[in-house]
C-alpha cells in the first residue's frame, strides 16, 4: 500500500533520509460544528440517493437498484474525498540542541605554578580529582586535569551540545581530536545531539598575551546566537587585564538568559611567592673584543629579604650552554621589591650572532619557570659597516643622514656630494677623492645609499658596476627619491637605468613629470601608514611592540613630496604606503618604502626624501630606521649570495601568543626558481624542541613561499630551510626571540574578581571537586521541531479518471434501464 501511495504522490522509490517518515492525512477535514453539519449533510445526501432510486427504479430488480445507488454514492464519496484533500505527508523532525559553553583561560598567567603553602583547602580540592601535587603543575595543566575527568563532558553532552573555547584577548575554538564514527554495527545516539568533544590537551597552551573576559564571552555567545544556551562554565585564574569589568560581563550573561553560570577558579588565592627576572639591559650590537655591559632587574613578591644568585651564561641559538660567564649575588624581598644586578663586562671574541642567558636561581620551594630567565641576542661585528653615500645636492635628507652616520660608531661612512666643487673636501669618517672606478674599489663598501643622485654627473660606468656588485656579490643599495633629479634618473636612457631596473617599484614617469618640476610644490602633509608586512618587518620595527610601533609611525612628522608609482614589482615587499588613497597605483596607494632581494643582494627604496623631518622631534626613531635598514642591506653581503635558500622572518622579537611570518626564496639544483606548491622549514626552539612548518607558494614572485608560526614557549628560536633532496637543514638560519607578554603578570588567583563575576551573572563559584556533579544538573535547552511536506493525492489524473468512470458507468446503466 505504501508503494502505491508513494507512486500516486509522485515520490518515486528513493529511500527516505534518516529522521524522516511518511503518513497519510486529510488536510481539509472540517472541525467543530462545521464538521458535524458536513457529516449530516453527506448522510442526508446518501439517504436521498437511496430514496430516489427506490422510488424511480421500483420496477427494476433490487440488485440493479443497489448497483446504481452504489455507483452514485461512490462518486459522491470520491468528490467528498477530493474536498478533504487526501495527501501523503513527509514528516521531518529536527532537533535543535541547546548549548553549554566551556571557556578556558589560556592567557600566559595560567602558566604560573602556585605554592598553596597558605591555601591547604584549595590544594585539597585539586587532590580530590586526582592531582597528586598541585604545586608541580601550572594552572593550565590543572585546568586540563579538571576537564579530563571521566564523564564530565559526557554529562554535559547528554542534554546539550558542548562548545569548548580558549580565551585570552578574544575567544578561539579549543582544539579537539577527530572521533571516528562507529562502523561495526554499533547504534548511533538517537537523541539528536552531537557526541561530546574530545579535547586535544596536547595542543592547549597558556600563550595568550592578554585576558579580555568580557569580549571573549560576548563573541562566544554570539557564535551560539541561534541556540538556547543552557549554561556557561568559565575556568580562569581571574587575572583580567583588558576589556570591560566583570559586572559588565555578568550583566550580559543575564541579558542572554543563560540558565546556569558556573565559575571555577584555578590557582592559589593567597599572596603569591614569586621571583621574576623582569628586565635585561645590554647592547644589541658590539664590536669583536669590545667589553659588553649587561645588567638586569630582579623582583620578588611575597618573600622577606633574602639573597639570590643571578647567573650569566653564553648559550647557542638553541639555548644549550656554551660557557659560564658570571655569578652575582643580590639582596631582594621584604622592603626591597626589586633589585638591579650589574655583571662584570663580557668579552665576545667571535663575530656573528651570540646569545647571553641571564637566569635568577629561585628560592627553595619555587620551581624554575620561564619568568626566571631571559635570553638576549648580541650581534658581534668583526668590523664597522662600510657605507658610501652619494647625493646629487646638499638636501636636508643628505645633511641629516651624513651627520648621523658620522656619529654612529658602528658605521664607517664616506660621502660624495655631486654638486660640490672639484676641490671640495668630501665628508665622512673615511674621506674619498673620487667615486669607485673598479669592482675592487667598490667592494670596499658594504652598502651604497643614493640620495636623489644626479644622473648627469654620474659616470656611466658606475651604475652597471653597482648592478653587478648587488646581484652577484651581495652589495646593498638604498635608493632615496627626491624632487631634483629622480625624475630625470627614471627616464629611459638615463645613466642610472641599470639601478632603476633593480628597484622594487615601477615609477609612473608620465605622472611624475606633470607633478614634479621647477615651481611645483606640495603643501599638504600626510602621515606614515604601515602595511601589514611593514607592521612586522624589522626594518620598520622602530619599537619592539607592533601596536605601539604602528602608533609611533602614524604620529611621526609626515611628508609632502612622494614620487608617483605605477605598481610594486611581484617580488617586492611594500612596508609603507601613501596615506592619501587617491594616490593610486595598480595594487593600492603609492608605495613609500619597499624592498626586495635582487640576486645575491638587497635593494631598499624610499619614495620620499623627507624622513629627515623626524630628526627634530624623534632623533632616536630616525637613527633606528636608518641603522636597521642598513643592517638588513648588509646581511646580503654577509650571506655571500651563494645559497639556494634565503630565509626571512617578519620580526626579530615577538610576544608569546603572537604569530611570526616566515618567508623563503628557494631555488632548485639548477638555480632556477622552485615551482613546488609547498616546501618546509624547520624551527628549533628552547630545550631542544623542533617543529617543521609547511610554507605555501606565494601568489607573487617565482620561487617564493610564506607561512605563519605561533611559538608555544619563550626564548630564542631558529628557522632553517630544508633541502628538497635530502631533507636536511640547509642555508643561513634566521633567528627570532619570543618574550613574555608585559600585560600578563604572575600573581595570585583573582578570587574576588571571579566571585563578583558569578554574582553579577546570577551564577555561582564551583570548586573542582563539585564540577562533575554540577555538570549533571545542567538542564536541557534542546528543542525539537517538526516540519511537514504534503504530497497531494487528490489532484492527480487517476482520481479524476475514476470519478468520470463511475459516473459514465452509472449513466450507461441508467440509459440501459430507461431511467433517463
Structural features, described:
By secondary structure, this protein is α/β, with parallel strands linked by helices. The chain folds into 5 domains: 2-95 and 788-816, no CATH class; 98-271 and 747-781, Rossmann fold, CATH 3.40.50; 274-381, Sandwich (Immunoglobulin-like); 385-639, 3-Layer(aba) Sandwich (Rossmann fold); 645-739, Macroglobulin (MG2) domain (Immunoglobulin-like), CATH 2.60.40.1930. Strands 19-18-20-21-29-28-25-23 form an 8-stranded mixed sheet. A hairpin with a 6-residue loop joins β34 (690-697) and β35. α8 (246-255) runs parallel beside α18 (751-760).
Uncertain residue segments? 184-190
- The CATH class of the largest domain, by name, is Alpha Beta
The major β-sheet equals: 8 strands, mixed
Count of β-strands: 39
User: Which CATH architecture of the largest domain?
Assistant: 3-Layer(aba) Sandwich
Strand content: 25-35%
| Overall tally of structural domains | 5
Helix fraction, binned, reads 25-40%
In DSSP terms, counting alpha (H) and pi (I) runs of 4 or more, how many helices? Answer: 20
What gyration radius follows from the Cα positions, in whole Å? Answer: 40 Å
Residue-averaged pLDDT, rounded?
Answer: 84
* Oligomeric state as shown: single chain
Strand numbers in spatial order across the main sheet: 19-18-20-21-29-28-25-23
Judged by helices, strands and strand pairing, the structural class is: alpha/beta
> What is the CATH superfamily classification of the largest domain?
Class I glutamine amidotransferase (GATase) domain
- Which term fits the overall shape? flat
Distance between the termini: 39 Å
